[in-house]
Amino acid sequence: MALVTLVNPNLMVQSRDRFTTGVVYMPIGLAYVASALREAGLEPQVIDAFAAAPRQARLEQGFLVLGLRPEEVIGELGVESRVLCIYANQVINHLSVVALIRACKRARPELAVVILENTQAVTAYSLQRVASDLFAEGADYLLSGEAERRVPLLVRGLVRGDSPASLCASLEGVCHRDHPTPVRPPAPIGALDTLPFPAWDLFPLENYWGLGFAHGPLSGKRYLPLLTSRGCPFACGFCVIPATNDRRWRGRSGENVVAEMAAMQARFGVDEFHIEDVNPTVSAARTRELCRAILDRRLRVTWKLVSGTKVETIRDEETVALMAEAGCRYISISPESGSEAVLEAMGKSFKREHAERIVKAMRDCGIRSQACFVLGYPGEGEADRDATRALLRRLTFLGVDEVALFIITPVPGAAIFDHFRGYASLSDLNFTPSWRQDYATLVRFRLKLYALFLWWKWLRYPGRVLWQGLNFLRRRFETKMEMIPYRAWVYARLERQARNGVTKGG
Fold first, then answer.
1. DSSP 3-state assignment of 97?
2. DSSP secondary-structure letter at 281?
3. Cα–Cα separations (whole angstroms), residue 117 to 125, 142, 243, 260, 402
């Protein structure tokens, strides 16, 4: 008998940009919550509204919405369920979260609706900054911060009939529509090794694998995400992580990470792992420990740092070589801007000479590399963008394999959130913010810079360009730039079907 149901919302794709939006993130935070509930003796029901039917598409408010309709989700709820927890996984999916709240309150008003925060993604958002909106839509409770320790306590309290006032007073980071400010802020979990591994058996993994693409470049048929650490010690002005993690970084031990790899390989036949940490290499000693643990156990796996890391925390060329020996095949780094003035405004440092050494080392060791940049930070001008272009050219000739160019959007919880106006919905706060007054200028620069990158790469590494084309054709992706055109093609086909009234399930 499942007293609690966990719901992952639909995936929303901006119709005008299938290349930058529509990134598939497996809900690892929710899988951790599911395992914590199971460990507490509260076996949950899990409904993944996206992955239950990832090719079922509809058009709503300028978005391609993938997955089950809200009424279908509510129809799947167990009759015994007393608590519905909705995972606010990405800010672009906010409209799906709202639709699920409304549908639940219409069909099952007796259920307590709890919204869970995603604390480990730069594409997520702070629930406290949007609390009034969520309560206005019908949410009963918000749970900010890492949820594993507190969700079982909250569920038991709700089943017992504890009052909202007592629950909010006893559980840090929990607030109710009648008590909208938490009595105590949530404390990040310190001892990450004590958490049970994610309960992936409750999720439709075959549907994720069947898509043929992921957040990171998908080289094989099966993969799983990993969180080897949480948080970040830095305070970048465009990022939500400082607000949701209190600038605290915590790492799991190498042995604990490798134990999870081995367990998932044995149970699901997975040998490709995508590390989704926001800054996995903060501790150079832990990075080396992880590599040695993989080598000592002779674990035949590949792993990729797909969410970006601060390149200065990759200590030296020897560390890169050790990572490659242990199976690392992809590293994303985040220079963000070539302009010192913009970096200073962001609150971010970047050591160019060190980055250049590490990029060359990755090239020499066979690790594919990505450089991520953000455009349109408040105060950025033409000279700043010229500096970004110059830095990208330098990194391209040194061997960086791909580039990602994001236009700044004000994520709720980030320091710059209040600097912007003009968006109609929180779902519009994605990395293609067409509502910005300067969007036309920024998107032209972005397209031109992508074209220049490909030209520079062709001049310096024509063989690599041809190889990436081959990877695209055979659908064994080593970089995101090989994979994203395929994903965009899939979304274009689903959008045509939606416009023609054709629906398709999982």
1. helix
2. T
3. 8, 8, 12, 24, 31
In this structure, the chain runs to a length of: 506
Cα(456)–Cα(495) distance, integer angstroms: 34
Strand, helix or coil for residue 230: strand
Domain extent listing, the chain = 4-176, 214-460
Q: How far apart are CA 241 and CA 234, in angstroms?
A: 9
Torsion on CA atoms 316, 319, 324, 326, rounded to nearest 10? -170
1 close to 61: Cβ distance less than 8 angstroms = no
Q: Cα(56)–Cα(34) distance, rounded to whole angstroms?
A: 25
Rounded Cα gap, residues 222 and 147, in angstroms = 27
Cite the beta strand spans of 249-289 per DSSP E: 250-251, 272-275
Q: What is the distance between the alpha carbons of residues 357 and 348, in angstroms, rounded to a whole number?
A: 19
Instruction: Write out the two tokens for 413.
Output: 């919880």
Tens place of pLDDT per residue across the chain (506 aa): 799 999 999 999 998 888 889 999 999 999 999 999 999 999 999 999 999 999 999 999 999 999 999 999 999 999 999 999 999 999 999 999 999 999 999 999 999 999 999 999 999 999 999 999 999 999 999 999 999 999 999 999 999 999 999 999 999 999 999 999 887 888 899 999 999 999 999 999 999 999 999 999 999 999 999 999 999 999 999 999 999 999 999 999 999 999 999 999 999 999 999 999 999 999 999 999 999 999 999 999 999 999 989 999 999 999 999 999 999 999 999 999 999 999 999 999 899 999 999 999 999 999 999 999 999 999 999 999 999 999 999 999 999 999 999 999 999 999 999 999 999 999 999 988 999 999 999 999 999 999 999 999 999 999 999 999 999 999 999 999 999 999 999 999 999 999 988 666 55
CB 249 within 8 A of CB 232: yes
The residues, any chain, with a CB within 8 Å of residue 455's CB and separated by 6 or more, are none
- Taking the whole predicted model, whether its pTM rises above 0.85 is answered as yes
Task: Look up residue 498 and give its amino acid.
Answer: A
From the options 2.102.10.10, 3.30.9.10, 3.80.30.20, 3.40.50.150, give the CATH code of 214-460. 3.80.30.20
Check residue 188 and report its DSSP letter. P
Structure tokens belonging to residue 353:
């000479």
| Domain at 4-176, CATH from 3.40.50.150, 3.40.190.10, 3.40.50.280, 3.40.710.10 | 3.40.50.280
**Are 197 and 249 contacting, i.e. CB atoms less than 8 angstroms apart?**
no
